[in-house]
Amino acid sequence: MALLEIKNLKKVYTARFSAQQTEALSTVNFSVEEGEFVSIMGESGSGKTTLLNIISTLDDATSGEVYLDGNPLSKIKDKEVSAFRRSTLGFVFQDFNLLDNFSIKDNILLPLVLSKTPIEEMEARLAPIVRNLGIEAHIHKYPYEVSGGQKQRVAVARALITRPKIILADEPTGALDSKASQNLMEILKGINEEGQTILMVTHSTRAASFSKRVLFIRDGSVYHEIYRGGQTADEFMDRISQSLTVLSSRGEGHE
Ligand SMILES: Nc1ncnc2c1ncn2[C@@H]1O[C@H](COP(=O)(O)OP(=O)(O)OP(=O)(O)O)[C@@H](O)[C@H]1O
């Protein structure tokens, strides 16, 4: 059974003060196996954020279903959604989403504090994660005292601390320079090699080349996919670029 299964997902937005409707997702079908690292690419407005928001339980689908470990997300009761999200999903966003008034350590521990984890357990989980991510020396600082790349590593630490089933990353390198982006992607690749499943939305072909599979979304549905297989990151990046060129220049059909 796939870890994540997206079945016939459709999302239509209805404008609040008019009858105007936008079909953001038409029919999305795909699945992610445990241990995979999958990127989602597509032009602006193709529905990537909408898709990630529905998988994140931040938004509801118009129809279709998302299954995690075989369980339909739409059946989770409203009052259980926050706890589900906290314990099962790890989030990494483009703009880090750290709390400025919390130290780095408190930002990382926040999901565990909210789920009332004992202090000894929190400390035991924190130590290896901050060591692996190279942010050990910064945990008593505040977000405004560290670089963008370090902030994003803090966000990754916060995502990992709950031992989520899947990490959902939305443009994680979007606010980083090329060196920090490379560093972050190497970290995500390493985490994936240790078994963490990752689903990432990105515009960056270089970032996507670190994943094992790339899904291309267009006009609200998955249009094409490629696997890295035995290719090097550079070879895979060339294939991703070629696919994007073909897809943006072609109206219909598969490669
Ligand atoms: N809250 C909303 N209300 C109405 N329409 C929306 C809403 N959010 C998104 N849309 C529309 O749904 C479509 C898909 O948007 P979405 O943000 O998912 O695209 P995207 O691929 O993430 O784009 P980008 O790469 O620019 O972030 C677009 O046409 C967008 O205008």
Automatic annotation (TrEMBL):
<dbReference type="GO" id="GO:0005524">
    <property type="term" value="F:ATP binding"/>
</dbReference>
<dbReference type="Pfam" id="PF00005">
    <property type="entry name" value="ABC_tran"/>
</dbReference>
<dbReference type="GO" id="GO:0098796">
    <property type="term" value="C:membrane protein complex"/>
</dbReference>
<keyword id="KW-0547">Nucleotide-binding</keyword>
<dbReference type="InterPro" id="IPR017871">
    <property type="entry name" value="ABC_transporter-like_CS"/>
</dbReference>
<keyword id="KW-0813">Transport</keyword>
<comment type="similarity">
    <text>Belongs to the ABC transporter superfamily.</text>
</comment>
<dbReference type="InterPro" id="IPR027417">
    <property type="entry name" value="P-loop_NTPase"/>
</dbReference>
<feature type="domain" description="ABC transporter">
    <location>
        <begin position="4"/>
        <end position="244"/>
    </location>
</feature>
<dbReference type="InterPro" id="IPR017911">
    <property type="entry name" value="MacB-like_ATP-bd"/>
</dbReference>
<dbReference type="InterPro" id="IPR003439">
    <property type="entry name" value="ABC_transporter-like_ATP-bd"/>
</dbReference>
<dbReference type="GO" id="GO:0022857">
    <property type="term" value="F:transmembrane transporter activity"/>
</dbReference>
<dbReference type="GO" id="GO:0016887">
    <property type="term" value="F:ATP hydrolysis activity"/>
</dbReference>
<keyword id="KW-0067">ATP-binding</keyword>
<protein>
    <submittedName>
        <fullName>ABC transporter ATP-binding protein YxdL</fullName>
    </submittedName>
</protein>
<dbReference type="InterPro" id="IPR003593">
    <property type="entry name" value="AAA+_ATPase"/>
</dbReference>
